[in-house]
From TrEMBL:
<dbReference type="GO" id="GO:0005737">
    <property type="term" value="C:cytoplasm"/>
</dbReference>
<keyword id="KW-0009">Actin-binding</keyword>
<keyword id="KW-0067">ATP-binding</keyword>
<dbReference type="GO" id="GO:0006897">
    <property type="term" value="P:endocytosis"/>
</dbReference>
<dbReference type="GO" id="GO:0016459">
    <property type="term" value="C:myosin complex"/>
</dbReference>
<keyword id="KW-0505">Motor protein</keyword>
<dbReference type="GO" id="GO:0030048">
    <property type="term" value="P:actin filament-based movement"/>
</dbReference>
<dbReference type="GO" id="GO:0005886">
    <property type="term" value="C:plasma membrane"/>
</dbReference>
<dbReference type="InterPro" id="IPR000048">
    <property type="entry name" value="IQ_motif_EF-hand-BS"/>
</dbReference>
<dbReference type="GO" id="GO:0005903">
    <property type="term" value="C:brush border"/>
</dbReference>
<dbReference type="InterPro" id="IPR036961">
    <property type="entry name" value="Kinesin_motor_dom_sf"/>
</dbReference>
<comment type="similarity">
    <text>Belongs to the TRAFAC class myosin-kinesin ATPase superfamily. Myosin family.</text>
</comment>
<dbReference type="InterPro" id="IPR027417">
    <property type="entry name" value="P-loop_NTPase"/>
</dbReference>
<dbReference type="GO" id="GO:0005516">
    <property type="term" value="F:calmodulin binding"/>
</dbReference>
<dbReference type="GO" id="GO:0007015">
    <property type="term" value="P:actin filament organization"/>
</dbReference>
<dbReference type="GO" id="GO:0051015">
    <property type="term" value="F:actin filament binding"/>
</dbReference>
<dbReference type="GO" id="GO:0005902">
    <property type="term" value="C:microvillus"/>
</dbReference>
Length: 381
């Protein structure tokens, strides 16, 4: 019910994590279809980069204005901070305050004095729920929770609540490895005359390091949905669940998955894995190239030949410039089942060949030995 500096920082982190989710699961996937030349109707989704820019913009963002207010000479107060935020962010569509309401001739009693409001998540713009194929977006009503009202009182004090340099140096001088690890800024060799970083700048730097780490990985997501506000078991509030699904961008994600392809792989690894399923590609593909838009590869031609010999519907496949796309997991499972059966056949064939070779070798050895013994016996006789 009351949101201060701590909740603002938490929501900022949530927005950045949501940005990673949007980029990796919605935007990047659709861009890959375009890069590979796959026929695709783009699915509209809300990109929260405008909210992240409102908060973290280096010159006009809320965090930048907060740091500037903490460093300016004179007494800082909530009113001066709100005036600075109004000058920098008042024209932003996701920012609201008493001043913006006055300029737009709006009256909102739910926005108290000394507060500002940020419209988080999709809110006013989104896709029609329940759509099975890509289509144009429609306007959705702003539901409770999409807009968060922050009490600006205490923002300046909490942003400058720093540990004095001499205290961190005293703790670092304890020569305990744990304490030195917790207060590395106390190292005299790292001493600096610059002003210590504010809480907001430290949070921004930490979030930036986290984002770089996440972008370098291949993350998997587990989305947790709160079924009710009272934490009661076996109680499901459909409106609350639908709101969370909508704000988390899961509707758009499901639409992209349903309209897109569940599996994609480069032609080379795919051909190496499944080439034993076709006599023309086993043990190696000797055919020509496949031309795709003026270019192509021998492996792409091999994959096309391989799949043409299998009972795979044409609508399940899409050939990109460098990758093969399979729409349904059922098709991939069928390929895996065929591969396992073929591997068992090949293993049986290899075993039979090895056993035959061993038997022939032993028979030939025995035959040569018998001939030699018989020759020696006849010579002796």
């Amino acid at each position: 019910q009351h949101n201060g500096f701590e909740q603002f920082v938490i929501n900022y982190c949530n927005e950045k994590l949501q940005q990673v989710f949007i980029l990796l699961t919605l935007k990047e996937e659709q861009e890959e279809y375009v890069r590979e030349g796959i026929q695709w109707s783009p699915v509209e989704f809300f990109d929260n980069s405008i909210i992240c820019d409102l908060i973290e913009n280096g010159s006009r963002g809320i965090l930048a204005m907060l740091d500037e207010e903490c460093l300016r000479p004179g007494a800082a107060s909530t009113d001066t901070l709100l005036r600075k935020l109004q000058q920098a962010c008042g024209a932003h569509g996701r920012y609201e305050s008493r001043e913006t309401h006055s300029a737009r001739r709006l009256h909102d009693a739910s926005l108290p004095a000394g507060c500002f409001r940020v419209h988080h998540y999709a809110g006013k713009v989104g896709a029609a729920p329940g759509a099975g194929v890509p289509g144009p977006p429609r306007q959705l009503p702003l539901m409770p929770g999409a807009q968060v009202t922050y009490d600006a009182s205490g923002f300046v004090e909490k942003n400058t609540d720093l540990l004095f340099r001499d205290l961190s140096q005293a703790v670092w001088a304890a020569r305990q490895p744990l304490l030195r690890g917790l207060f590395p800024e106390g190292d005299p060799r790292r001493a600096s005359l610059r002003l210590p970083p504010t809480a907001a700048s430290q949070v921004k730097a930490s979030v930036g390091a986290l984002m770089r780490n996440l972008y370098s990985k291949n993350p998997n997501y587990i989305r947790c949905i709160k079924p009710n506000e009272s934490k009661a078991p076996m109680v499901l509030v459909p409106e609350l669940v639908l709101a969370q699904i909508r704000y988390l961008g899961l509707l758009e994600n499901v639409r992209v998955r349903r309209a897109g392809y569940a599996f994609r792989q480069h032609y080379g690894p795919f051909l190496e894995r499944y080439k034993m399923l076709c006599a023309r590609t086993w043990p190696r593909w000797e055919g020509g190239e496949r031309r795709v838009g003026g270019g192509g590869t021998r492996r792409a031609a091999g994959v096309e030949t391989l799949l043409s010999e299998l009972p795979v519907p044409a609508e399940e496949l899409a050939f990109g410039h460098s990758k093969l796309f399979i729409r349904s997991p059922r098709t991939l499972f069928d390929l895996e089942r065929r591969r396992q059966e073929r591997l068992a056949q090949l293993a049986t064939l290899i075993q039979a060949a090895v056993r035959g070779w061993r038997c022939r070798t032993r028979f030939q050895l025995l035959r040569r030995s018998q001939i030699r013994i018989a020759a020696c016996f006849r010579g002796h006789a």
